[in-house]
Amino acid sequence: MVVGLGRFGSAVCETLVRQGVEVLAIDVDNDRVQKYADEFTHTVRADATDGEAMRQLGVPDLTKAVVAIGSDIEASVLSVITLSEAGLDTIYAKAITRKHGKILRTIGASHVIYPEFVMGQRVAHMVTGGLSDYLEFEDEFAIARSYAPAETWDRPLSESAIRTRHTITVVGVKRPGQPFTYAVPETIIHQGDELVLSGRIPDVERFTTLAA
Ligand code: ADP
């Protein structure tokens, strides 16, 4: 179930439908429901804070829910409580602030997502490090996409010894106009190649500034 068909919720639904997942999409706003009625599997006008309505929709039999309400914190909190009380264990909830996220966690959300905060972090890394993409995980680990720095050009990866010198692992390489390939020790890097790198955040940041 996806609660709330704003920009975030509709993007979640769109991707799930593309993956072949059966989705029950709900929103209190009739216009939003109408907008997506033809696109998503089941689209219903309903209030996620209404326990009786949720039971009638079969919420206790669902496996997972995404509560994609951002700006209305009261509705977001009450929706998570209602779905949790209806017996759902796996609830992904969108939060707009750390405090909002903390409340959601306490009342039954199994996963809290901070889309704006995470995207802001990514853009900051892209801007400062010359990265074309950046993804941060827990425990100080990140994956980034960046141009290959000059010290790696025209030699195999084994020779640049990136892992020992920079504590970075090169996962994939992309030559302009070609798809990504897995990086192996024999892969020769050229000027203009893009790399997918993984490692600890400070190491990734340091390495990618060499290419900026
Ligand atoms: P976004 O920033 O992703 O567009 P919004 O917070 O603007 O997200 O949108 C949230 C959506 O959730 C709105 O379409 C709103 O009508 C819907 N919504 C709000 N409260 C409820 C509720 N109690 N039950 C179901 N849908 C709700």
Sheet with the most strands: spatial strand order: 3-2-1-4-5-6
Oligomer: single chain
Distinct small-molecule ligands in the complex: adenosine-5'-diphosphate
Judged by helices, strands and strand pairing, the structural class is alpha/beta
Overall 3D form: elongated
The H/E string reads EHEHEHEHEHEHEEEHHEEEEH
Q: Name the poorly predicted regions.
A: none
Strand content: 25-35%
Please count the helical segments: 9
Biggest beta-sheet profile: 6 strands, parallel
* CATH topology title of the largest domain: Rossmann fold
Rg on CA atoms, Å: 22 Å
Q: Report mean pLDDT, rounded to a whole number.
A: 94
N- to C-terminal distance: 42 Å
Helix content: 25-40%
- Reading off the top of the CATH hierarchy, the class of the largest domain is best stated as Alpha Beta
- Please report the total strand number as a whole number: 13
CATH architecture tag of the largest domain: 3-Layer(aba) Sandwich
CATH superfamily placement of the largest domain: NAD(P)-binding Rossmann-like Domain
Number of domains as seen in the coordinates: 2
InterPro entries: NAD(P)-bd_dom_sf, RCK_C, RCK_C_sf, RCK_N, Trk_Ktr_HKT_K-transport
Domain RCK N-terminal: 1-119
Protein name: TrkA family potassium uptake protein
Domain RCK C-terminal: 132-212
